Amino acid sequence: MAPTSTPDIPFGRILTAMVTPFSGDGSLDLEGAQRLATYLVDSGNDGLIVNGTTGESPTTTDGEKTELVRAVVEAVGDRAHVVAGVGTNDTRHSCELARFAERAGAHGLLTVTPYYNKPPQEGLYQHFTAVADATELPVMLYDIPGRSGVPINTETMVRLAEHPRIVANKDAKGDLGRASWAIATTGLAWYSGDDMLNLPLLSVGAVGLVSVVGHVVTAELRALVEAHTGGDVAKATEIHQRLLPVFTGMFRTQGVITSKGALALLGLPGGPLRLPLVGLTEAETEQLKRDLAAGGVQI
Question: Which of 26, 123, 215, 298 has a C-alpha 20 to 30 A away from that of 292?
Fold first, then answer.
């Protein structure tokens, strides 16, 4: 049974975009995924995104995605929202993944803007509507034009927000002005999808975070959000500034690479990456250690 939620905060406040652990031979490590999911929820996450970009979704099969959702729901689904990434640049495929995720027990769906084929806004509207129509699960849009090549315009967000199952947006657009207008006009629950902008987005109305650095600093992110929602902006700012080295260090290269590098340093499941992603070099690992230490992470 899914954890309780409210229309204003449908997936909780702190969600980590979880890596997909692999075994040494590159196969899916379901036991490791369950251990990592349990660790992250025990650390204070209200939910987990599985099969997202940080979960190496471009290089996992549909069957692996379904197995992963089922395993994570089994491990933590009674305590945390398990949101399955189903975004592709093929609407029919995304709808199929959505149905697979629903049958595997997911509590919600994350669907990214179709990438590479650069559809117009009407194409985005029809794509997201089709995915939302495919199941009975609540949907979080994912707006990340730096990867997809196309932003979801505010006007399109307003139209999509009329769908009863489109309830949230993960914002990695990096535009606080547009975010302010969209939060004010859509009524969608807004989640920061850019760790460096967690606090700024909270200040203009975001309700929570979908984080990569949550792999290593969930407790600190929760303290930041609780300080901000409790009206202690000075404390929230102090935590934000203390975490700046972590925000910087975890994105010196691709976020999956650094996340798995950090998990290895902490002795947590992660394992190798699938090509075309490659692991940290020795120099990059030493730099990550320095960045994490500067942000207060004990290795």
Answer: 26
